[in-house]
Amino acid sequence: MGVPLASDARLASLEGRPPTVTTVCSHSSLQIFHGARLEGLPTIGIAVGKPPRFYDAFPRARPDRFLTVERHRNVPALAEQLRQAGAVLVPHGSFVEYLGAEEFGKIDVPVFGNREVLAWESDRRRERDWLESAGVEMPKRYETASEVDGPVIVKYYGAKGGKGFFLAKNREALEDFRPTGPYVIQEYVLGTRYYVHFFYSPLSDRGYRVGHGSLELLGMDRRDEANIDELYKLGAQEELLKAGIRPTFVVTGNVPVVLRESLLEKIFEVGAKIVERSIELFGGMVGPFCVEGIMTEELQFKVFEISTRIVAGTNLYISGSPYSDLLEPGTSMGRRIAQEIVRARAAGRLNEVLS
Ligand code: AMP
Fold it and tell me: Residues of the chain whose pLDDT is less than 70?
């Protein structure tokens, strides 16, 4: 039995009917709607401004209906209407980012997964406390510039959208850094980045057992990041800076990757530790999450970030991935979310997967 995340009052709007999978039209919404449709659930797309026209081009992923708001922050005002429609909100990067983790956490509509987790993810210090106390290896953190003994990346709090990073190849180069807000100095890890798409099911009693349920690996990607990925063509960061260009990590797309098979053991151990610690800290992280890390040449996996909801890299695998095909062919992350809702409802356990 998992941990109850939602009260009966919170789930009252879902009584006696199939939940309506609802999300903001952006990020990974096409596969969320497509997956819900495959599992027989109705869908609502919340459009900011007017519904994106390109949805017409993808009839199998178009939501059954749209609701429109002028801005993301107006979504909570739809709460009554959403409850009447039996909505279950599915958080994704743009939805949470533009509404704000705090506001999202307060919406009085059932949410897929544990909404508590968003507060841990959106605060870099809390996130580090969680991951380090789980026993996960992370890039070293320097309290002051004088301790720096190698290449570093300086990150502002809440730096999102890939901008606002400063790279220094050593302590001397860090002297050029002029902070404009609170920041952290982190070891710049040399290695290969992997973004690993996990799904934790508290309902499942088969597979790779973790916590009260099991951990599934659905896919992996690497992000294309402008303009840092092209840096090597100019030789070094200094060349970019001389040209007046600041390196940024703005994500422009995703590429599929697979890990050396022998490294899968390590990756599962990392995922399991993160889930187990989340159960102790706040009742558990349910559903999709992405562990973002760098594999070094010593084959250590250092985790620099975790996303505690569906990530856009899963858009690569709408018809399955080399990993999800070994679980159940044709399972995207969006479809897996819908499956979990259907299974929880059939077992009378919606309160373990919704909050
Ligand atoms: P973040 O905002 O923490 O997701 O970082 C944005 C990007 O910076 C990542 O996708 C990586 O490309 C890069 N990055 C972050 N932390 C590190 C690190 N400690 N070492 C090397 N690269 C990093």
Answer: 158-160, 232-240
In which domain, by residue range, is 67 found?
Answer: 8-133+192-223+257-352
Pocket probe mutation, ligand 1, options 304, 305, 308, 311, max atoms within 8 Å of Cβ: 304
Which stretches within 169-285 are classed as H helix?
171-174, 237-242, 264-282
Which residue minimizes the CA distance to atom 7 of ligand 1? 249
170 lies in some domain: no
Do residues 156 and 183 make contact, with C-beta atoms less than 8 angstroms apart? yes
Query: At 129, which CATH number?
Result: 3.30.470.20
Distance from the Cα of residue 211 to its chain's centroid: 20
pLDDT score for 33: 98
**Mind listing the pLDDT tens digit for each residue in 283-298?**
999 999 999 999 999 9
CB 109 within 8 A of CB 82: yes
Q: Are 220 and 292 in contact (CB under 8 A)?
A: no
Whether 200 maps to a domain, the answer reads yes
Q: How many domains does the chain have?
A: 1
87-89/20-24 β-pairing: parallel
| Closest of 127, 107, 111 to residue 119, by C-alpha | 127
Judge if the beta carbon of residue 304 lies within 6 A of ligand 1.
yes
> 200: which DSSP letter?
E
The per-residue pLDDT for range 30-45, each reduced to its tens digit, is 999 999 999 999 999 9
pLDDT of residue 122: 86
Q: Is the CB of 171 under 6 A from ligand 1?
A: no
